[in-house]
Amino acid sequence: MLLPVLTVLISCTGCENELFNSGSSDYQDHTWEIQLNDDQKVIEQTVKGIEFKFCLLNEDSVPSTTFQEGENLFFYFSTENTRDENLSFDPDFMNFGVNTFCKVWSEKGDTIGKPFVFGGMNLIGSGAYPFHKGESYKFKFPWLYSFDLWNSLFSYEEELETWRLLYTYFDATDQEPLTKGKYYTKFSHKFRFSRTIDEPSLHTDSLTFKINFEIK
């Protein structure tokens, strides 16, 4: 039986505002990439009035592309509505189970894995989520699962490895610490936001976020 653990983090968790000083200089066809030698550690871009941020955090919640062997790392992603209108998320926004969000590859392109797998959706509650002007949705996922860690992030009431984010359920994959080497994480998504009944939905083209990182 799939049981809910927590929904969504509306207030900031992980990256603080001062960490986002400028956007990535790499921009081509809505694809942004952070290289190992880049000073900027956070992808920050605004598309159609929606601000997107993506980074990797170390165990001190600091954006980084370099981690020590055995250290946990966190995938941080946020969206903020900077438009002068209230919107709503369409349910497919957080259906990360069917794309590569949080997936890791070796530098050579070999698949390493994801910290979770898609566990299904609660179709009963499949409406859109309020996304008022000035509001942010912020998400932080660890590579290494532990009950104590997930309890601190998502308020577990019992020891479960199935958790819920909005209407989507996920199962932890119990990943091992990454060994020394170079890796990357990458995902693409066409974001869609509902507007008022009388206005068409707001769509983006496919946006691609890629971060190269190293385990030392």
Note down, in words, how this protein is organized:
Helices cover 4% and strands 42% of the residues. It is mostly beta strands and 216 residues long. It has one domain (17-215). The strands form 3 sheets. Strands 1, 4, 6, 7, 8, 10, 14 and 15 form an 8-stranded mixed beta sheet that branches. Strands 2-3-5-11 form a 4-stranded antiparallel beta sheet. A hairpin with a 2-residue loop joins strand 2 (42-47) and strand 3 (50-57). Mean pLDDT is 77; it is low at 1-27 and 155-160.
Radius of gyration: 17 Å
**Unreliable segments (pLDDT under 50, ≥5 consecutive)?**
1-27, 155-160
What is the tally of helical segments? 1
Main sheet, how many strands, which sense, barrel?
8 strands, mixed
Broad structural category: mainly beta
Helix percentage range = under 10%
Q: From N to C, what is the helix and strand string?
A: EEEEEEEEEEEHEEEE
CA-CA gap between termini: 40 Å
Which whole number gives the mean pLDDT? 77
Number of domains: 1
- The beta-strand count equals 15
Shape verdict: globular
Amount of beta strand: 35-45%
